[in-house]
TrEMBL record:
Signal peptide: 1-25
A Pfam family hit: AP_endonuc_2
Domain Xylose isomerase-like TIM barrel: 53-269
GO terms for MF: isomerase activity
Annotated protein name in UniProt: Xylose isomerase
PROSITE patterns (alphabetical): TAT (PS51318)
Originating species: Pedobacter steynii
InterPro entries per UniProt: IolE/XylAMocC-like, TAT_signal, TAT_signal_bac_arc, Xyl_isomerase-like_sf, Xyl_isomerase-like_TIM-brl
Keywords carried by this UniProt record: Isomerase, Signal
Coiled-coil residues: none
Length: 290
């Protein structure tokens, strides 16, 4: 958790299988692909982006979610065109990417937002996803109301470029202020048609909340999920999907209510080779959850 937060702060950015919704339950072909958040492989992707992408595809994944894009470095040293070509060569799509939005949320400066939009459009994304909020932006419910207003503004700008804005949670959004939480403020005060949410199931469960209750209260707002399992002995760390304590089968039954379109594996720490790990998670989601 700390390494992720530190990384996001320093770099300025910062599961899972895609599932077959109930209406597809009896079809032999899988209606949804399985995705991987590439932050999972952050220790190796910068050293060999081509080799890592090839390994992700060999593990069975059909989608990836990016992080860390910048105008200077592109996607791990590749510009958007070259990275898209690499994905295409491996039968992969990138429907979403994580792009930091703190400068815009703080003062409305659109410079970084426009750069991020260009990066997202360059590889054919559908969603520009906000992965994190700096601590200085979220110390009260009033702060979250300001965040929600900025998200609405950013969503309108994204919409003009053919993108949908989404927000990815951690656990801090569930801190209570006078009985309310920042997460509910954002859900209630953002345009339900323009602002979507990428629910990180691990963080929702770890914070003591129920994903299904949120799906029922805010139907259709959660087209993306991070499917990340919780270690049974040490809840502060992750484990391979299907090996931990989260009851994904019960959650996945409510995919239609949530509006799920993309389920994306993510794991932040490993007790085995990361490529073996992502294959185990893929196999569980692909064979047991869809």
């Amino acid at each position: 958790m700390n390494s992720r937060r530190t990384f996001i702060k320093n770099v300025g950015i910062a599961a899972a299988g895609a599932i077959v919704l109930p209406s597809f339950a009896c079809t032999p072909a899988k209606a949804k692909p399985v995705g991987l958040q590439l932050y999972t492989l952050r220790e190796v992707i910068g050293k060999d982006v081509k080799g890592v992408i090839e390994q992700v595809a060999k593990a069975g994944y059909k989608e990836v979610e990016t992080y860390g894009y910048s105008a200077q470095g592109g996607y791990w040293g590749l510009d958007a065109k070259a990275f898209k070509s690499l994905l295409d060569a491996n039968g992969l799509k990138a429907p979403s990417g994580h792009f930091g939005l703190d400068p815009f949320i703080k003062d409305g400066n659109q410079d970084d937002l426009k750069i991020n939009i260009e990066g997202a459009k360059g590889i054919g994304m559908d969603y520009l996803t906000v992965p994190w909020l700096g601590e200085n932006l979220r110390s009260s419910l009033d702060d979250y109301k300001k965040v929600a207003a900025r998200l609405n503004e950013a969503a309108e700008i994204c919409k003009k470029s053919g993108l949908t804005l989404a927000y990815h949670n951690h656990d801090f959004e569930f801190k209570k202020y006078d009985g309310g939480t920042g997460y509910e403020v954002m859900l209630q005060e953002t345009d339900k048609d323009n602002v979507k949410f990428e629910m990180d199931l691990y963080w929702v469960v770890r914070s003591g909340n129920d994903p299904v209750a949120l799906f029922n209260k805010y139907p259709g707002r959660f087209p993306m999920w991070h499917v990340k399992d919780m270690d049974k002995a040490k809840p502060s760390i992750n484990t391979e999907v299907g090996s931990g304590s989260i009851d994904f089968k019960s959650i996945f039954k409510h995919a239609k209510q949530a509006g799920l379109k993309h389920a994306i594996v993510e794991q932040e720490n490993f007790s085995m080779d990361p490529f073996i790990s992502i294959k185990k998670s893929f196999d569980h989601v692909n064979h047991d959850l869809i």
